[in-house]
Design goal:
single chain; 482 residues; mainly alpha; Growth Hormone, Chain: A; 17 helices
Length: 482
């Protein structure tokens, strides 16, 4: 199949806008559920394990589906895979909004995650195909801004739905909002997204490699997504060494597959490029820190300090706006200055995280949301630098024909980092507040100084771990810069 230049018929920015909009929907569903966990317990009778799976089930399914879907998109047709993912995401979102039980909601969220895992590698592959050179850097800049907006505005959207419609209708619309938006995007995607893409040659699907990769990701992520910080069975950690063994079997199979003259699902020669190798590591560490930061900050302000969901959701608005503006402006510079932007981004973000810890220790509880919003406005510069620059740097040397699978493996790093960060952050947080007295609804008394101090201590310790992730990422960014 030959590649038709998209600009010959229409600007590549038009299909890019459609694809990026869908990517934002998938990222929104990672974070907007943070503020609806307490209402799910109140209205649907969800247990802590079930609310944990509402978050973690989506992330787990997202991560498992990425590489097989990226492979199928590269080998078959990215547009077809994109449409399958978008329709599935729409149906799953409707099912989540109408869930009669918590168990049904968990299943719907897993289906949503699979659909998101189908969609995201197609979007990244399309960017590789539609743009070249500096234009690709600008596209990744806007893409990074969009993802930053989705990540930061997610809690705000959930909080606004809860404030407007109440607990039950609020959480249902938090999931259901995807349906009308997706119904608008489906015909636009059919019409505007080009079907042409680079010819992948005679490569096959490599079903054994795809299966080994999916099972390895499942077993490595599973103990982390099953970690809630309350009543977790220690046997879950047996999945981790099993996952590592399967991952080693996957590497062995892929190397033998390539030596036989076939095309492996993941060409490990990609890791010979320091830009790709370091970029995947930085991505994993970044997503270990940022989403978990939003989660523990939400739990601290909403449960520990008793602030309403709308106020808690609005804390992240300055972060979202600043990160989007910075990413859009700096996108044009990522082609030449990616590593410098990533280093400065992490430095700013780390300073801001330390500022959040200081606020929890010294600012009166009633002023916490405003103070944290101000610090997060500064923190927003960090992802504005990091997201687009690291995305550009990671894929800059990757052949266009492998853009989908290379981008999807980077996304696996995102989902793995997300699962690890949320698991560690929430486990520390819940373990430290387990002894806090609670009322009949299961919530602590936000006027009790001892309760507030316990929640502040939990937030501070969880944040210390997230700062460590960020510092480690800064070290790898410095190595990449050299």
């Amino acid at each position: 199949m030959t590649v038709q230049h998209p600009g010959a018929a229409r600007s590549p920015w038009i299909p890019f806008a459609v694809a990026a909009s869908v990517a934002v929907l998938t990222i929104l569903d990672v974070v907007k559920v943070n503020v609806v966990l307490t209402p799910l317990e109140e209205t649907l009778g969800a247990t802590p394990t079930q609310t944990g799976l509402v978050v973690a089930g989506y992330v787990l399914a997202f991560g498992i589906a990425l590489v097989p879907s990226g492979r199928l998109g590269d080998q078959w047709n990215r547009k077809a895979m994109f449409m399958i993912g978008l329709v599935t995401f729409t149906v799953a979102s409707l099912a989540a909004a109408l869930s009669p039980t918590a168990s049904f909601l968990v299943i719907a969220r897993i289906l949503q995650g699979i659909a998101a895992g189908i969609l995201m590698p197609q979007v990244l592959g399309m960017v590789q195909t539609l743009f070249q050179g500096q234009a690709r850097g600008q596209a990744f800049g806007i893409f990074g801004a969009s993802i930053g907006l989705g990540t930061a505005f997610g809690p705000t959207i959930g909080g606004l739905f809860l404030g407007s419609f109440g607990s039950e209708l609020g959480w249902r619309w938090t999931f259901g909002m995807n349906v009308p938006l997706a119904l608008l995007l489906i015909p636009l995607a059919l019409w505007l997204i080009p079907a042409a893409q680079p010819d992948a040659g005679d490569a096959d699907l490599d079903p054994v490699g795809v299966t080994l990769m999916a099972v390895a990701v499942l077993f490595v992520m599973l103990p982390f997504v099953l970690t809630t910080g309350s009543g977790d069975h220690p046997a879950r950690w047996l999945f981790l060494p099993l996952g590592i063994v399967i991952a080693l079997a996957f590497i062995r199979w892929e190397n033998r597959y390539r030596a036989a003259g076939k095309s492996p699902v993941l060409d490990f020669t990609l890791f010979a490029y320091s830009s790709y190798r370091n970029g995947v590591i930085i991505t994993t560490l970044w997503f270990s820190a940022m989403p978990a930061m939003f989660l523990v900050m939400t739990l601290f302000n909403q449960q520990g300090l008793g602030h309403d969901p709308v106020a808690v959701g609005l804390i992240t608005v300055p972060f979202a706006l600043i990160s989007a503006i910075v990413a859009a402006v700096t996108g044009r510079y990522t082609f030449r200055h990616a590593t410098t932007l990533v280093i400065w981004g992490f430095a700013i973000f780390i300073v801001a995280l330390i500022g959040l810890v200081a606020i929890s220790a010294f600012v009166p509880p009633e002023h916490n949301p405003l103070a944290m919003a101000i610090v997060l406005a500064i923190a927003g510069i960090g992802p504005g630098f990091i997201m687009s620059a690291n995305q550009m740097r990671t894929l800059i040397e990757v052949p266009v024909s492998q853009g989908g699978v290379a981008g999807s493996f980077q996304q696996v790093g995102q989902r793995l980092g997300n699962a690890i960060g949320i698991a560690i952050g929430s486990a520390i947080f819940y373990a430290m507040v387990a002894a806090v007295p609670r009322d009949t609804t299961g919530l602590p008394d936000p006027t009790d100084p001892a309760s507030v101090a316990a929640y502040a201590g939990a937030f501070q310790l969880a944040m210390a771990v997230l700062i460590l992730f960020s510092v480690t990422a800064l070290v790898f960014a410095s190595i990449d810069h050299r």
